[in-house]
Design a protein that fits this description.
By secondary structure, the chain is of the alpha/beta class. It has three domains: about 5-10 and about 235-315; about 25-235, 3-Layer(aba) Sandwich (Rossmann fold); about 320-400, Winged helix-like DNA-binding domain superfamily/Winged helix DNA-binding domain (Arc Repressor Mutant, subunit A, Orthogonal Bundle). The protein has helices at about 25-35, 55-70, 85-100, 105-120, 150-165, 185-200, 215-220, 225-230, 240-250, 260-270, 275-285, 295-320, 320-340, 355-360, 370-375, 395-400, and strands at about 45-50, 70-75, 170-175, 205-210, 230-235, 350, 380, 385-390. It has a five-stranded parallel β-sheet with strand order 2-3-4-1-5, with helices on both faces. Strands 6-8-7 form a three-stranded antiparallel β-sheet. It is globular, with a radius of gyration of 23 Å. The two termini are about 35 Å apart. GO terms for molecular function: electron transfer activity; heme binding; metal ion binding. This is Cytochrome c domain-containing protein. Keywords: Heme, Iron, Metal-binding.
Length: about 400
């Protein structure tokens, strides 16, 4: 098969040639946009799932839907080492410019509030040269969104932005990737702001994406968050959607997958979108001709696993310290022992922290630094008290293969 015409695209957040299995989420979001534009009440949206299921791809697709609807939109990725003010102000700056409001004075007023919100990121006694400048031409407006209390300021900021959008009959959507990495104060402020704009019927919506424990992070911040957001669990593709993700791009290039090849691909990838693209790319290059067969999948398997081992699994494993790697391997071993004992586990291989400590012959308290380090690096998550799980599907299998 011609590698130049290879249609498959494995990559972090890179849209695949065929966004299969996400039609329901896209249709639902279109309804949400239209309802908000008409002044109907709607909740902000949270997408959750393991890494490799396509949350970022879907987030970008939803943003494209907002742009097509004429909304102003902005996007940023949360980071544990960064507060909310800078990325939020940059995203809102883009969104306000996209609105196309005809009254420049009104636009400058809101841009000035955004600038004041951003500048409050620096300490009060900081010199001008040490203050981050958001690149907004309008002068900062004092007395609005600049109190220093992030919750008060964000509520005022989104209220003003929502008012500007309402003037032109449009809306503003802010898309936040890796939302679980927001700090506790920022999460609380975001929940409070979403609550306020919802109560006031303003056309502003937040769409967040994060790991499976994101709902617990939000709930720990504000008790009403479970009613504040519409939660969507993004999972691996079912058999039909996975086959469509392979077949449609191939057919566009005049090629086909044999039925036995599709079956072999689903067995190898588990229906995870990133794995489908990774296996699809390597198998296409390995196949001598169309239709692609199960034998081609078998031949390409070792190379696909090697690429995943280096780029998808290995890069994450390398970020861990020796003590953290020991903890990860212990998690994988405990999960394997549970499977051998007949316990059914999901792809995240959730295990009890007490079992990991027992496997290592250590006290649970002595393992807290390793566990906390892995949580901060996003390699594991805690969906419930006393249990931990991998954020990456098949990670345990990878760890057992290199042990």
């Amino acid at each position: 098969m011609d590698p130049i015409m290879n249609p498959y695209a494995p990559g972090a957040g890179q849209r695949p040639p065929e966004l299969a299995g996400r039609d329901e989420q896209l249709r639902t979001f279109d309804v949400v946009l239209e309802r908000i534009a008409r002044g109907r009440p709607e909740r902000s949206i949270v997408l959750t799932g393991l890494r490799g299921v396509g949350k970022t791809v879907l987030l970008n697709a939803l943003r494209s839907s907002a742009v097509r609807a004429g909304w102003g939109s902005g996007k940023f990725e949360a980071r544990p080492d960064q507060g909310l003010r800078r990325p939020m102000s940059a995203a809102l700056h883009v969104a306000v410019r996209e609105l196309g409001h005809p009254q420049q004075d009104d636009v400058d007023q809101v841009l000035g509030v955004i600038k004041a919100f951003a500048l409050r990121d620096a300490p009060a006694n900081a010199k001008l040269r040490d203050k981050w400048q958001p690149g907004i031409d309008a002068p900062a407006r004092s007395g609005r969104a600049d109190s220093g209390d992030i919750e008060i300021d964000l509520v005022e900021l989104l209220t003003d932005v929502g008012g500007l959008a309402a003037d032109v009959g449009k809306g503003v959507a802010i898309f936040i990737d890796e939302m679980q990495d927001l700090g506790p104060d920022d999460v609380s402020a975001l929940c409070a702001a979403c609550h306020e704009i919802s109560q006031n019927g303003l056309p502003v919506i937040v769409v967040g994406a994060g790991l499976p424990h994101l709902p617990a992070v939000l709930s720990a911040s504000k008790s009403y968050s479970e009613r504040l957001f519409r939660y969507n669990r993004i999972d691996r593709l079912d058999r039909a959607a996975a086959e469509h993700a392979l077949q449609a791009p191939a057919q566009d290039e005049g090629a086909e997958w044999a039925p036995d090849a599709l079956e072999a691909m689903y067995a190898a990838t588990g229906g995870y979108p990133y794995f489908i693209q990774a296996y699809g790319k390597v198998t296409w290059d390995a196949a001598p001709a169309s239709p692609i067969t199960a034998h081609d999948v078998e031949v390409a398997g070792p190379e696909a696993e090697e690429e995943l081992g280096v780029g998808f699994f290995g890069s994450r494993f390398e970020r861990a310290t020796p003590g953290e790697r020991e903890y990860l391997r212990a998690m994988a071993d405990v999960a394997a022992e549970m499977r051998e004992a007949g316990v059914e586990l999901d792809e995240s291989e959730s295990v009890a922290t007490a079992d990991v400590a027992k496997h290592l012959g250590r006290k649970p308290q002595s393992l807290s630094p390793a566990r906390d380090g892995l949580l901060k690096k996003g390699l594991i998550y805690s969906g419930e008290r006393g249990r931990i799980a991998f954020t990456v599907p098949h990670f345990g299998r990878y760890l057992r293969s290199i042990a």
